[in-house]
């Protein structure tokens, strides 16, 4: 039998999902993350899930991993000391940056400009110049290059980035500098902009290339370490890492291009949510992934996540393709506090993380968190993560009492409910960023909730957004790992053109797209896939002539192959429709083709769907006990159900708590959860669930 492992490392928990590729049977395990060395938590989880399944780790063929190593290096400012080589006259490219300040007028006063990842003292200029068409205007002065690289060596740089002006059109000078760097700076990893991001705009290309160099050491070290530990554990599995756009790359490719991994973890969740929503019969939905440290949200149309051309982590924005995920510092471990200045209750973004964790974990934490509030309200069982974490209700109540005292509330339960209401509003704000602020009405979408804490808050978020049904997938706490295990290999190739539509015929562009597709296929073919396994899609960044930004638009490749002009007509119509949706107006300006790209995907693994036995509407066979919970300012009696014993067609009417190994679902009064034959819970208002 063949087995594959999905691994998702979060700020609080590491989720492991083992899939039997022959039968579709799954085994899951949830363990505390080990921030000091993520691979330790991963290996512990792998051993435990294999033991639970009764198999030897050597039987695992593939390990598919969503990781936050690159993300954490950026957020914690723990990357390498990076040297930057650029064209003479452009030494301050990172310092000048873009003249955009977030927020309103006050942003100019209070916004601290982020520090560049490569210091000015570690930035050198070399004599060379190429034009926007790629012709050499000034030859590369190699002696000058050597002299500048020696300066960087004396500075003690740990990684080198090379970003020359117009290198997207001709990368020969960058390649030669890399060769010289191998002689002058032996052992120093090198990132070239013509490889990392061969696209227009020197600042975006520079900051992306520098970010790649900044995290490359940590990512490559982590990949090597994990590979070695897997070997020591007797495993001979292929390690693949999830990219920010939801595709997989081999561990070696990921180590060379780590800037594409900055949203690796959240992308796995969106992929898993798409799988679960399709099984439940929904194609348009919002995703709501609430973990211990943060909440990630995204919008999916026709089972396709919206893909953006920028990735933002902290105060860093780079040009890298990623699922359009928005993140807020709201999770189960988010700390509630009352600032002395305002005396108003706040929740997050600070988090208790995995160590010491919420007060209720009994690991030394004392500050009140969202998890502690849920414990006080009676929403959580006595144990989490399959018994790995016991909950201390007295410690939770003592922590939340500090909030009750600080706010003048008489009851600990009222303070706990206030914490939950505020964190729900914070997450609702994130959902609005991907829906209403992008021109979408959330009431036209379902809401897929997952993560360890997501199902606990999902019903409330459904009420706030009006997105019904709220879908709770099977194994929601490890759904990101499920997404990792069920995604496919992917690579892309791009070329910047910056020319009006009229400069091309349909046949011209079709030929260029085929060339790019051939380049993107090479990585997947070298990974052992055959031509028949590959699927290619195309897109273009388009703008009106004179605009300073582009909009990504899908390309109808067969229309371009037809060569009758219908290709550019379809591309023009697609751009105009998206521009109208985003900005509510159109221009008469000529359309301009900025960048085109080809994306090649391998096949999705075939994993059998869960099919439950039919059991009618009565869920009483799954009932565990009765318990008091606090909802809407009052104590009510709720029924506690065991999700593993629910059958297809069962209807659980709130107030109710549905418990399982990796998560807990709260069904509020006036709502009901219907069990779908493929295992998902579909929560709706009671009047809607009767239809």
Automatic annotation (TrEMBL):
Q: Which GO terms describe its biological process?
A: glutathione metabolic process
Domain (Acetophenone carboxylase-like C-terminal) spans 512-674
InterPro entries for the chain? ACX-like_C (IPR049517), ATPase_NBD (IPR043129), Hydant_A_N (IPR008040), Hydantoinase_A (IPR002821), Oxoprolinase-like (IPR045079)
Residue stretches making up the Hydantoinase A/oxoprolinase domain: 205-491
List the record's Gene Ontology CC terms alphabetically.
cytosol
Write out the coiled-coil annotation as residue ranges. Answer: none
- Select a single GO molecular function from the record's annotations and give it: 5-oxoprolinase (ATP-hydrolyzing) activity
Superkingdom is: Bacteria
Q: Which Pfam families match?
A: Hydant_A_C, Hydant_A_N, Hydantoinase_A
The Hydantoinase/oxoprolinase N-terminal domain sits at: 4-184
Q: What is this protein called?
A: Hydantoinase/oxoprolinase family protein
- Which species is this record about? Arthrobacter zhangbolii
Q: What is the lineage of its organism?
A: Bacteria, Bacillati, Actinomycetota, Actinomycetes, Micrococcales
């Amino acid at each position: 039998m063949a087995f594959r492992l999905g691994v998702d490392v979060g700020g609080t928990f590491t989720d492991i999902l083992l899939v039997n590729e022959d039968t579709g049977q799954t085994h899951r395990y949830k363990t505390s993350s080990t921030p000091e060395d993520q691979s330790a938590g991963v290996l512990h989880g792998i051993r435990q899930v294999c033991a639970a399944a009764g198999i030897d780790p050597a039987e695992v063929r593939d390990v598919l991993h969503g990781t936050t190593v690159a993300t954490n290096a950026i957020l914690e400012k723990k990357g390498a000391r990076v040297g930057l080589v650029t064209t003479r006259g452009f030494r301050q490219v990172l310092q000048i940056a873009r003249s955009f300040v977030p927020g309103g007028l006050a942003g100019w006063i209070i916004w601290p400009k982020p520090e560049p990842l490569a210091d000015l003292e570690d930035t050198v200029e070399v004599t060379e110049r190429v034009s926007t068409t790629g012709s050499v205007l000034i030859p590369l002065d190699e002696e000058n290059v050597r002299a500048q690289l020696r300066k960087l060596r004396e500075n003690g740089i740990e990684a080198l980035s090379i970003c020359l002006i117009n290198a997207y059109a001709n990368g020969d000078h960058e390649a030669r500098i890399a060769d010289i760097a191998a002689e002058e700076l032996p052992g120093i990893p090198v990132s070239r902009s013509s490889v990392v991001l061969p696209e227009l705009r020197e600042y975006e290309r520079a900051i992306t290339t520098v970010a790649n160099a900044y995290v490359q050491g940590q990512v490559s070290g982590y990949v090597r370490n994990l590979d070695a530990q897997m070997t020591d554990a007797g495993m001979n599995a292929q390690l693949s890492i999830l990219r920010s756009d939801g595709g997989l790359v081999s561990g070696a490719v990921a180590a060379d291009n780590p800037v594409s991994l900055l949203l690796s973890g959240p992308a796995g969740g969106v992929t898993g949510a798409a799988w679960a929503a399709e099984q439940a019969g929904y194609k348009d939905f919002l995703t709501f992934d609430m973990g211990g440290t943060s909440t990630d949200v995204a919008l999916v149309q026709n089972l396709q996540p919206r893909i953006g051309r920028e990735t933002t982590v902290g105060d860093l924005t780079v040009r890298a393709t990623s699922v359009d995920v928005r993140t807020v510092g709201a999770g189960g471990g988010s700390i509630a506090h009352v600032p002395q200045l305002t005396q108003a209750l706040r929740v997050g973004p600070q988090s208790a993380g995995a160590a010491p964790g919420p007060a209720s974990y009994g690991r030394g934490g004392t500050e009140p968190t969202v998890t502690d509030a849920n414990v006080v309200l009676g929403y959580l069982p006595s144990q989490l993560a399959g018994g790995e974490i016991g909950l201390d209700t007295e410690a939770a109540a003592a922590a939340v009492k500090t909030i009750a005292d600080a706010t003048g509330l008489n009851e600990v339960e009222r303070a706990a409910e206030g914490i939950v209401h505020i964190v729900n509003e914070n997450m609702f704000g994130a959902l609005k960023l991907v829906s209403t602020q992008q021109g979408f009405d959330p009431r036209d979408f379902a809401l897929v909730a997952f993560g360890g804490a997501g199902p606990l808050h999902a019903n409330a978020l459904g009420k706030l957004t009006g997105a019904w049904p709220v879908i709770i997938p099977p194994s929601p706490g490890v759904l990101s790992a499920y997404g990792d295990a069920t995604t496919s290999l992917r690579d892309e190739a791009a070329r910047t053109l910056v020319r009006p539509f009229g400069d091309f015929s349909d046949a011209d562009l079709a030929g260029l797209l085929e060339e790019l597709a051939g380049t993107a296929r090479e990585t997947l073919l070298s990974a052992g896939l055959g031509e028949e396994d590959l699927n290619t899609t195309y897109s273009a960044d388009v703008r009106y002539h004179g605009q300073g930004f582009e909009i990504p638009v899908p390309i109808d490749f067969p229309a371009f192959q037809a060569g009758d002009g219908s290709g550019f007509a379809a591309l023009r119509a697609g751009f105009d429709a998206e521009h109208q949706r985003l900005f509510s107006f159109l221009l008469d300006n000529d359309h301009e083709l900025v960048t085109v790209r080809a994306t090649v995907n391998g096949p999705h693994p075939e994993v059998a769907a869960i099919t439950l036995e039919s059991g009618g509407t009565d869920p009483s066979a799954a009932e565990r006990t009765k318990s008091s919970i606090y909802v809407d300012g009052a104590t009510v009696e709720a029924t506690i159900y065991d999700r593993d014993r629910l059958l297809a067609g069962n209807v659980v009417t709130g107030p109710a708590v549905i418990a399982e190994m990796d998560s807990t679902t709260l069904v509020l009064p006036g709502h009901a959860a219907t069990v779908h034959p493929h295992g998902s819970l579909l929560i709706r208002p009671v009047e809607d669930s009767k239809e």
